[in-house]
Amino acid sequence: MIKHVANEVWAYDCEWVPDLRAGRLVYGLPDDLPDGEVLRVMWEQGGATPETPMPFLRTLVCRVVSIATVIRRTFKNGEVQLFLATLPEAPEDATQDEAYILRRFLADGVSARQPQLVGFNSRNADLRILTQRAIVNGLSLKHLCERLDAKPWESNDIDLMDLVAGFGKSYAVSLHEIATLCGIPGKLDTTGEDVCGLWYRGERRKIVEYNAFDALTTYLVWLRLAYFSGCFTADGYIAEQRRVVRLLDERIARPEDAYLRVFRDAWHGLKARTGQLDDGVFTDDATER
Questions:
Q1: What average pLDDT does range 20-33 have in this prediction?
Q2: Strands ordered across the beta sheet of 80-87
């Protein structure tokens, strides 16, 4: 399972949508063809059926529109701090496009800080589209290439799905399922299938908010697996969850981050339903031990 907790852990999640420019170029469509028609062709090329009108498209013809990360940083004096970072920082700013998002996350972040990356299905999904679209956008990322070249058993990164799922439908595990059963919010009001519609309706902030929820879910599932693996004591695991509660409380106090209350309330409710509310995570008198 999880062998150690690095000094810098980034639990992240990406969101992407069909790239109309890619659709026009790859399928030879005219520039003046309406966007809706371009999307229709892309869905058809992706194998659309009446039952599945918007199939999962090849990631190369999609564009990254959001990356959210929960950062756990251990300082030299042993202090641990949590941060929640979302890209783009200003969803309404057209200059914070895909190239900007990839550069901020991969070059300014991953290459500069060299964190332990934690994701769910990240090895075959998130890291793949990040690599493909970084190439399309003309970025140079030597450190990312070295990370990708590492053998799975040599890599410091963690794909949670690899740890908990197995071959065959009976052993498949979704992030929503394992999170919910552990008393952690999974999918709330929005799912991945809604992202494309949100993007093309101009509701980009809603995508960033949904993405932040998924990053928080991924981080809390990682904490659970790290505790399961013996990386934290029982008291230490409670203290780690308390850090997430404090992070949420601090961010909720800012008007622009009030949306995080939905996640906090859902987490509190699931802990109650799964009989875990007496662990002290949500009580004011709980102390770090």
A1: 97
A2: 80-87, 62-74, 8-18, 116-119, 158-159
Tens of pLDDT, residues 66-93: 999 999 999 999 999 999 999 999 999 9
* Res 144: pLDDT: 86
> What pTM value is reported for the model?
0.94
Contact indicator for 212, 260 with CB cutoff of 8 Å: yes
pLDDT band at 289 (very low <50, low <70, confident <90, very high): very low
Q: Cα–Cα–Cα angle for 187, 23, 133, nearest 5°?
A: 65
- Of the candidates 97, 158, 155, 105, the one whose C-alpha atom is nearest the C-alpha of residue 130 is 105
Q: Are strands 62-74 and 8-18 parallel, antiparallel or unpaired?
A: antiparallel
Alpha helix positions (H), the chain: 20-26, 35-45, 98-102, 112-113, 127-136, 142-149, 160-164, 175-181, 195-200, 204-228, 234-252, 260-273
